[in-house]
Amino acid sequence: MKRIVLASTSPRRSALLSQIGMPFEVVAPNVDESRYSFEADPAGTAERLALDKARSVAGRIHALGSLILGADTVVLFEGRILGKPRDAGDACAMLRRLTGHAHRVLTAFALLEAGTNRAVTVHEWTTVYMRECSDDEIRAYVETGEPLDKAGSYGAHALGAGLITRIEGCFYNVIGLPLARLLESLRTFEADAVVRN
After folding, report:
1. Rounded to two decimals, what is the model's pTM?
2. What number is the average pLDDT over the span 159-181?
3. CA pair distance 38, 33, nearest whole angstrom
4. Are strands 4-6 and 25-26 parallel, antiparallel or unpaired?
5. Which positions are catalytic?
């Protein structure tokens, strides 16, 4: 297998790669995410951002043939993008909107081969259903600090799991990487199948 470089400082993405036994190293990307607008084309924009993250790392990777993995996760509810909350009050407001409803989570990833600029981009959607929660439950959850660095203000992998009644699609996609799609893409890449820039 080619050397894998994760262009993300997300501990959850690192944990997912470790969970499937994939050796990798982490190099932080250098991308201004505020330049990207997701509303018109969430999937296409997330794929572009994932690829730009990988490209921002590629110039610092000197091993020819290494695969750089960039990724981006977006939460959408009623046509609006829910990013990371500004503060605890914003997290509570987001969770009040989400509880009792379904929303969609989009994760896009890009694999970029260092030295050749060959790349493949993929995205996956998952629908998440949340139970009704009281204001006291929401405040107690936000006070744990878990929601404050997460898109949509919850962590499906930890305490936030108690808010979710069911998921349609890939659970790991909600955490930050659709693992089965990633492994399929790695095999495709190794086989020199169709690659798009």
Report:
1. 0.88
2. 97
3. 11
4. parallel
5. 72
